[in-house]
Amino acid sequence: METNQPLIDLKSRIRDIPDFPEKGILFRDVTTLLKDPAAFRQVIDQMTDYFRDSRATHVCAVEARGYMFGAPLAYNLNMGFIPVRKPGKLPYDTISQAYELEYGKNVLELHRDAVGPGDRVLVVDDLIATGGSSRATAQLIETLGAEVAGFGFIIELGFLKGREALEGYEVYSLLQY
């Protein structure tokens, strides 16, 4: 990081919400981190420093909280930003991939012309739990002929073993629970 400021304890900026979105889930809420300008800047600066030499061409982020971190990271790295969305939200021709969540199932979509051969894509999200949405995003990118350059997360829930779902890929997380 290019600052003389002391590092902020980022975990102290994450709010825990029990039983959300359903009973038995402890939700890690990043909105409290986002509202703190110094903490938000530190997250983006640390991710920028980590991925600066990745040789990536694009940053791809998963709807919706991934956008909050992926877009400023893409800006800092002078890369294009690619949104991955839930079904029916992208206006052009898409490809889709189903995946399992910690508490259900879902589908993600990507524009068919978002990336292609020769592109190297960083995938960014606020949190990795089981790795389902991240793995689905990698499959979308690779279906289009591009390469996944790595994954970046603010929070990693290690006990859910999401990193194992991404075996063979570079995975970086700022905070581990």
Question: Helical residue percent?
Answer: 25-40%
Order of helices and strands: EEHHEHEEEEHEHE
CA(first)-CA(last) distance? 23 Å
Main pleated sheet: 5 strands, parallel
Category by helix and strand content: alpha/beta
What is the strand tally? 9
Major β-sheet strand ordering: 4-3-7-8-9
**SS strand fraction:** 25-35%
Q: Mind telling me the C-alpha Rg?
A: 16 Å
* Unreliable residue stretches: none
Q: Sum up the overall morphology in one term.
A: globular
Describe the fold and architecture.
This protein has 177 residues and is an alpha/beta fold. It has five helices and nine strands; from the N terminus they run ββααβαββββαβαβ. Strands 4-3-7-8-9 form a five-stranded parallel beta sheet, sandwiched between helices. The protein has a two-stranded antiparallel sheet with strand order 1-2. α3 links the parallel β3 and β4. α2 (37-51) packs across α3 (65-77). It is globular and about 40 Å long. The model has no long low-confidence stretch (mean pLDDT 95).
Could you outline the blueprint of secondary structure elements for this entry?
Blueprint (H helix, E strand, L loop, with lengths): L14 E4 L7 E4 L1 H4 L2 H15 L6 E5 L2 H13 L2 E5 L9 E8 L2 E8 L8 E9 L3 H12 L3 E10 L5 H4 L5 E6 L1
Helix pairs in contact: 2-3
Features:
single chain, 177 residues, alpha/beta, 5-stranded parallel β-sheet, two-stranded antiparallel sheet, 5 helices, 9 strands, globular
Describe the structure in brief.
This protein has 177 residues and is α/β, with parallel strands linked by helices. 27% of the residues lie in helices and 33% in strands. The chain is built from 5 helices and 9 strands.
